[in-house]
Amino acid sequence: MSITDTTESRFHWRCKHTWKKSSYNTMWCLIGCSIGDFGTIYFFQISNIFWPILAIMTLAIINGLITSIILETSILMKQMNLSAAFKTAFNMSFISMISMEIVMNTVDVIFTGGAVLNFYIIPVMLLAGFLTPLPYNYWRLKKYEISCH
Question: What is the C-alpha to C-alpha distance for residues 120 and 111, in angstroms, rounded to an integer?
């Protein structure tokens, strides 16, 4: 039996500590993504600038990714230098951020037609954005003992 087989045979989804840690990591990712995403959508919503919804949503996703990386880098700089913090923030959570952003914006499009923020859609977007990458974050933390916070 190889080391990989042993590691995989020990993997399970029942570790409360890992769920707690991965939930904490996912929360920081969600906060960072939401700042850029919601800020972009809100800007277009109040400024009455006409852009195609797909363009607004794409820009919202890009801005969400940028703000999440900035937030996570700033948190990690308490533990490491800027270069290492940026690389860690980018490499550790980019898949989570992309999935989170796509799902949040898909929820917005499904429920509002896109590029609209209101009090009933924001909690739904946040919940969907949180739950989507959570299993991946758990798996990555449990299997590789890798997290970004």
Answer: 10
Domains in the chain: boundaries: 15-144
pTM: 0.88
What pLDDT score was predicted for residue 92? 76
* Cα–Cα distance for residue pair 69/72, rounded to 1 Å: 5
Length of the chain, in residues: 149
> Comparing C-alpha atoms, which of 149, 137, 124, 148 is closest to residue 18?
137
pLDDT at position 1, please? 46
- Residues in contact with 44: Cβ distance below 8 Å, sequence separation at least 6, in sequence order: 51, 56, 115
